[in-house]
Structure formats: C-alpha cells, structure tokens
Amino acid sequence: MEQAIKSQNNMKQVEKVLYTAKTHTTGGREKGVARSSDGHLDIKLTTPGTPGTGTNPEQLFAAGWSACFEGAIAIAARKLKVTLPGETAIDAEVDLCQTDGAYFLQARLNVSLPGLDREIAQTLVDAAHQTCPYSKAIRGNVDVTINLV
To answer: Quick check: 145 and 134 in contact, CB under 8 A?
Structure first.
C-alpha cells in the first residue's frame, strides 16, 4: 500500500503549475542512475569524494540553485531597469555535513556582477534571494551565505 507524505509548512494555494520535473532514480548515491521523463537528463550518480564517474546530489543542487538564482537576479534587474553584465556568474558551494551522526547541508553562493555599482548589485542579490524558489525552499532549513564578489 502506497502512503503519501506531504509537508504543509507555509504551503500556498497553487494558482497555476508552470512545470513539473519528473525523474526516476535507482541505486541512490552509490552507482545510481537518474533519468528525466523527457530524456534530457540521464546521469550516473556517485558518492561525493569517491573516484566514480558520476555526479552527486550536492552538485545537482548547487547547479540547480545557482541557475535559478541567476534567473531571479535577471527578473529583479528587469524590474529595476538595470542591465546585467554579460559576465554575470554564480559559483555555488553546497557542503554535505555531519554532526552527532545527523546529515545536513550548508551552502554559499558567490555572485559576480562585474561593472555594476555595489549597492545596485546588492539590491539585486537581496531581491533574488527573496524570490528564488530554491532560496525559499531551504530558508530556515539550511545555513546559507550569499557573497557578492
């Protein structure tokens, strides 16, 4: 019998689903495989720090969050009528940590907006952190540092 677990913390009423990502994963971190239903994602998974050829959930999260965050910066820039530099970049770092046998994440985003006034750049980063769905999802659950570099 299948049992559903649904989190109700701060759930909002959905007006419209814009996209649903669907993946099928077998094998977990150790010699696992993850594939998307549309075939665009087909990757091997490997435990972090091992010599395997696959990626790991922390790298996937870092890539997804940084891409989403950059999109949120672009939305904020459009609202403020600011042109983003072509060299806009985000280096994401996601740490898999352990304390007293419990696993948890901590993360950093190092945001580069070269050529923008620092105050304007910080305004964009702050706005992005409030609107990015990844930032919202981990707020209060993951220790996050966002550096403007």
So the answer is: no
Report pLDDT digits (tens) over 91-103: 999 999 999 999 9
Q: C-alpha distances in angstroms, 121 versus 2, 16, 74, 92, 148?
A: 48, 31, 11, 17, 8
| Integer Cα distance of 88 and 107 in angstroms | 20
> What does the DSSP assignment read for 33-102?
EEEETTSS-EEEE--TTSS-SSB-HHHHHHHHHHHHHHHHHHHHHHHTT-PPPTT-EEEEEEEEEEETTE
Q: Would you say residue 10 has pLDDT above 80?
A: no
